[in-house]
Write a structure and sequence with these properties.
Elements: E1 2-8, E2 11-18, H1 25-28, E3 37-43, H2 44-60, E4 64-70, H3 79-91, E5 99-104, H4 106-118, E6 124-129, H5 132-138, E7 143-148, E8 151-158, E9 163-167, H6 176-193, H7 195-210, H8 213-233, H9 249-258, H10 267-284, H11 290-303, H12 318-325, E10 338-341, E11 347-350, H13 355-367
Parallel strand pairs: 2-9, 3-4, 3-5, 5-6, 6-9
Antiparallel strand pairs: 1-2, 7-8, 10-11
Bound molecules: nicotinamide-adenine-dinucleotide, the ligand O=C(O)C(=O)C[C@@H](O)[C@H](O)[C@H](O)COP(=O)(O)O and zinc ion.
Nicotinamide-adenine-dinucleotide binds near residues 74, 77, 106 and 138.
Length: about 375
């Protein structure tokens, strides 16, 4: 097992990564479950796959689990589920010092974390991520949110968990498409500031996705450590440092909005394509060679993630995609800074990007014949 220490502004917590943590959930919670009753928020797929394992660990250790089982999918990050889940937690008489367990992917983690942030002005919560994406990214760093009709994650809070338990065994029941979506956020850490890790992905990514457990542990632990370092430098995304973690997301969130937050395009898939677009746009601006952008697209396409905008078959133009971007939380005095690349592992925040130019670029990408 790997234990990655996270220390955000003097508030430390651990990320424990290994196989079999769900079966040993209570011991791994390290005394944080201080009452008999334990609230657990999850979704129906996760409950079907792992509910009995978690239930047994709690009951065997003298706890009474209380389950809230939500519908799977992005639409669960909603005002309605937020209100209903907060009311459910209130009905359980959860106190500020109690820990709510978020058992699931990024949707469950984001929603439950936000409930914990607002309930009684802040309760504690434990992230138990069960997707690759949530293990490498969403369970760490304290961004919590719901979506609104205007866009992605537009209502939320920064609220750090007390503990993250990432059980690699949970990935055994995860559909391949979801594993791949999570892999996009792994590649992101290489593209941001770690060319060696991108090279590691080139060599090992496909084997890791296919199931090699040692490679999975390395990928999760490396990704978590990379994210923890960045978040520790800029918890509230004020200096631009944390914004690096948004590589591919300005394009990606616009694509998610355009496809109605539907199963047509998962978050990780949108980020994968968004990173290809960020790389291609950077090359078009002469910031890096087109060969480097082709390398990014080739890696993402070969592993099985979307790497071509035109192949999505969207019925829209570049201006429509840019319109979604106007809701991006990075908007600053009417301008939108973009994460662009001066090379693989050389991402930076560019504040001089013209949205007309981006719309023109996207028109070209929408019409381009896939390679
Ligand atoms: N807070 C952050 O920093 C952050 C970072 C990245 C992404 N996100 C958010 O995370 C969300 C995406 O998360 P996700 O990709 O984990 O999606 P998800 O939570 O929708 O889970 C994906 C699917 O896998 C199923 N599932 C989960 N674990 C399973 C398991 N072990 N076995 C079988 N099925 C399982 C779920 O039921 C769901 O159908 C998006 O809303 C995104 O915005 C947040
Ligand atoms: O933790 C961060 O910071 C990230 O940007 C991680 C992203 O992978 C994640 O999708 C995040 O939710 C996007 O943040 P947002 O502020 O653009 O909603
Ligand atoms: Zn993301």
């Amino acid at each position: 097992m790997a234990v990655i220490p996270v220390n955000i502004a003097g508030r430390p917590y651990e990320v424990r990564v290994g196989a079999g943590l769900l079966a040993e959930l209570v011991p791994h919670c390290r005394g944080k479950l201080r009452k008999r009753d334990v609230p657990i928020v999850t979704d129906a797929n996760v409950h079907a796959a792992w509910g009995d394992v978690v239930e047994a660990s709690l009951r065997d250790n003298g706890h009474e689990p209380h389950w809230r089982i939500l519908p799977p999918g992005e639409h669960t990050k909603s005002w309605d589920e937020l209100a209903a889940t907060v009311n459910w937690l209130l009905s359980l008489e959860v106190e500020r010092g109690d820990h709510i367990i978020a058992l699931g992917g990024g949707v469950i983690g984001d929603l439950t974390g936000f409930c914990a942030a607002v309930l009684k002005r802040g309760c504690k919560f434990i992230q138990v991520p069960t997707t690759l994406l949530s293990q490498v990214d969403s369970s760490v760093g304290g961004k919590t949110a719901i979506n609104t009709p205007a866009g992605k994650n537009l209502v939320g809070a920064f609220h750090q968990p007390s503990l993250v338990l990432a059980d690699l065994s949970a990935l055994e029941t995860l559909p391949t498409r979801e594993l791949l979506a999570g892999y996009a956020e792994v590649v992101k850490y290489g593209l941001i500031n770690d060319a060696d890790f991108f090279a590691w992905c080139d060599t090992n990514g496909a084997k890791m996705v296919a199931g090699d457990s040692a490679l999975r542990e390395y990928a999760v632990a490396h990704s978590v450590a990379a994210k923890a370092r960045i978040v520790a430098e800029d918890e509230f995304e004020t200096t631009g440092r944390r914004a690096l973690l948004n590589l591919g997301h300005t394009f990606g969130h616009a694509l998610e909005a355009e496809t109605g937050f539907s199963n047509r395009l998962l978050h990780g898939e949108a980020v994968a394509l968004g990173m290809v677009l960020a790389a291609r746009y950077s090359a078009r601006k002469g910031l890096m060679p087109m060969a480097s952008a082709d390398h990014v697209a080739q890696h993402i396409g070969e592993v099985g993630l979307p790497a071509s905008l035109s192949a999505l078959g969207l019925d829209c133009n570049g201006a429509a995609l840019v319109k979604h971007m106007l809701h991006d939380k990075k908007m600053d005095a009417g301008t939108l800074p973009f994460l662009l690349m001066k090379g693989i592992g050389k991402t930076y925040l560019d504040k001089q990007v013209s949205l007309e130019d981006v719309a023109d670029f996207l028109d070209g990408e929408l019409a381009r014949t896939p390679a």
